[in-house]
Amino acid sequence: MKENNKLAWFSNHGSDLISYGGLVFCLVIFSVLSSVNGTRMWSSYNIGIIIQAVSIYAVLTLGAMFIYSMGYMDISAGSQVGVYAIVFILVANKTGKVWVAFLSILGLALLSGFINGYVAVMLGLPSIVTSIFLMSIFGGVQVLIMEKIGINSLPLEGEPKNLLTKLNNMKFEIGDIKIYWFMIAVIAVVAVIVIFLYNYTRLGEIVKSIGANPTATQYSGINTTIWKVLAYAVFGTCVAVASFLLVMKTGAVGKGTGTGYAMDIMVSLLLGGMPLSGGMKSKVSSALIGSFTYVILSNGLTLAGVSTSVGYLIRALIFIAVILITCRKKDGVLPR
Amino acid sequence: MINFKKVAALALASVMSISLLAGCGAKGGSDDASGNPHHKIGVGYYTDNGAALVAIKAYLEGVKDDLNCEFEVFTISTYDENANLTKVQEMISAGYEGIIMSADMGSGSILAECEKAGVYVAGFLCDYNESFYTNFDAVFGSEYFLGTINDGEFDKTSYVEEITNDIISNGYKKVGLITFPSWAYPLQAEIARMVMEKFDAAGIEYVDPIELSFTTLSDGAPTYLDDNKDIDCVFSICAGANFVYPDLVAAGRTDLPLYTAGFEGKADMDNFRGRGNGMFKSICCTPIEGIAYPIVLMVDKLNGAKFDDAPATPERLAITQYVILSDEEMDAMSQTIYCTGNYADTVLNGEALKNLCKSFNDQATYANLCATMEGLHGNL
């Protein structure tokens, strides 16, 4: 009996154990390896850059939770980030007002969220198809805008630049350690909102239900279209916030800004123990744990002196292992 | 029930990851005989493959002991600031005291980050045009930016003269001109303008230049060869070996001679004039030893030494490229470290490089450094 209870516990919490264990494993092994290599993972500077990098990934993955919970996937996030970042800088430079720029990209993000969700449902297309469509549109728009402007890198200027630099550098100090708190505050605020939406509202309940069984959810009288569109709207909002954080970090954008984020989101969620097929076992913690694990993995490999090519190999191996471990469904690993 | 597949996957990933990591680890060093400390310098290169990269890695490996430095080459992006900034941040965390970059992308934020961390930045094979014209104070005005060496000359008169003279003397009647977008490479547009002027004066016909947005000819201008069947020569002012040559071959136009900028050390070497199909009539590229310029500036800065004749603001040093127009020149070119990837073939070894540094040689001057860089192309 006791043995059965243990097995049941492992069955229910196995993926949590693996995802939290993965993060702890990364922290321990890279702390050791970086110190062997003569560098310090826990230096004030390194903690700062980890938080800076995590903030963008965390906000994106927290939003993407709603999409992946439905068993859907989105590969347009990267090109969306690129376009929103360009639009943000163009509007901010033109108006001199950061809030106007942010509202502009928020509006765009909600619109594309609506298109992403509604078109997929109305045309009965798999979500991946509409996201490919959006990725192409946004990718094309990004290149066109940059070519029209005629420069390779578009910088933020004037008052908006000063404000964002100030926000980026806001910190408090504990001894030698500097804590850049604005990024942490953004992660915390977005996480609290997402936790609330995901765990305490019908939105979270229904997206998980759609992931577990879309037909049953629909037959139980739920208008899944509205909820799908809402899920995409939440994701869009998070993409807009992440774009803002990205501009705050780099202060400039190019035609390749945002490249790779779509895949990074998926890998982060997987590392956090999120089943790509979605469903009731999806958890918000996957987004946070996954983002930290992904960034620490990347950061730690560099600090440990691992060459770029070997780093790719290690990441690929871990990715394959995590997919095999977290795959629950015999009939498919990937989202619908 | 234990799932063997999952356990095996976990075990496999752990064992392989740890085995890979086992090769890494304690690097470090002590002061050299001159009392100069050991330094770690990161080199960001804009691509992860090609003959130039192989040669640069071999060169850095060859000179590191003489300079008491270690170098780590990493890949940077030519269009994504965030990727470059993140990589530079990680290099700073990993203890690198200097960063040499071959792309001017995100330089403003990178310099701001490096200023905070006390890390120096220099450029190579890059004109830093964008920073020079749009972000001068943040980059060239920063005490942490040391300067850059350009990928060739800024004044392309001599290059244009050599290529157009060869085209004219070979009797070609109508020439196709191809460039990358002028917003990214304004110098290529300028070369195209100079070439057209020369052709106008010589009575050579040409097709107005087309811009390839970093795509191949077949992707960027799919009907170009059909629309211009009467051209008897192509001058690709952009990298023709990768972006034009494969499409000419695929279209069966191996009869079209190709003059091109850049050098890949593959098809362009194997099919140069008397070799292979003979399509390539010219190539040009910058000696990889040009990286010595930022290395010297960086090593001296880190060692606290300064040339007596150092410029007041960081410079964009232009050097003469290899311009290869004959089989004899290609034979000589193929003996350089650029083609062989063998450190023994360099024209500027570690000892010579050390002598260029003020921190190792009190007689060293900035003027001598510049003159040495200018002489790297030898007779080519």
Folded structure, characterized:
The complex is a heterodimer of chains A (336) and B (380). Helices cover 76% and strands 4% of the residues of chain A. Chain A is mostly helical and 336 residues long. The two termini of chain A are 38 Å apart. In chain B, the strands form 2 sheets. Chain B has a 6-stranded parallel beta sheet with strand order 2-1-3-4-5-11, with helices on both faces. Classes of the chains: A mainly alpha (336), B alpha/beta (380). Chains A and B meet through α1, α2, α5, α10 and β4 of A and α1, β2, α3 and α4 of B.
What gross morphology of chain A would you assign?
Answer: globular
Strand content of chain A: under 5%
| Main pleated-sheet profile of chain A | 2 strands, antiparallel
Q: Rg of chain A from C-alpha positions? A: 20 Å
Number of helices of chain A: 13
For the largest beta-sheet of chain B, the strand count, sense and barrel status come to:
6 strands, parallel
Radius of gyration of chain B: 23 Å
Major interchain interface with per-chain residue totals: A-B, 56 and 52 residues
Question: Short description, anyone?
Answer:
With 336 residues, chain A is mainly α. In chain A, 76% of the residues lie in helices and 4% in strands. In chain A, a hairpin with a 2-residue loop joins strand 2 (171-174) and strand 3 (177-180).
Tag the structure with descriptive keywords:
heterodimer, A: 336 residues, two-stranded antiparallel ribbon, 76% helix, 4% strand, globular, disordered C terminus, B: 380 residues, 6-stranded mixed beta sheet, 12 strands
What is the strand and helix layout of this fold?
The complex is a heterodimer of chains A (336) and B (380).
Chain A: H1 2-36, H2 44-69, H3 77-95, H4 98-122, H5 127-149, E1 153-155, H6 158-169, E2 171-174, E3 177-180, H7 181-200, H8 202-212, H9 214-219, H10 224-250, E4 252-254, H11 261-271, H12 284-303, H13 308-326
Antiparallel strand pairs in A: 1-4, 2-3
Helix pairs in contact in A: 1-12, 2-7, 2-8, 2-10, 2-11, 2-12, 3-4, 3-5, 3-10, 4-5, 4-10, 7-8, 8-10, 11-12
Chain B: H1 4-22, E1 39-45, H2 51-67, E2 69-75, H3 81-93, E3 98-101, H4 107-117, E4 120-124, H5 129-134, H6 136-139, E5 145-149, H7 157-169, E6 174-179, H8 186-202, E7 205-211, H9 217-220, H10 224-227, E8 233-239, H11 240-243, H12 245-250, E9 258-261, H13 267-270, E10 280-285, H14 292-303, E11 315-317, E12 322-324, H15 327-333, H16 337-340, H17 350-356, H18 366-374
Parallel strand pairs in B: 1-2, 1-3, 3-4, 4-5, 5-11, 6-7, 6-8, 8-9, 9-10
Antiparallel strand pairs in B: 10-12
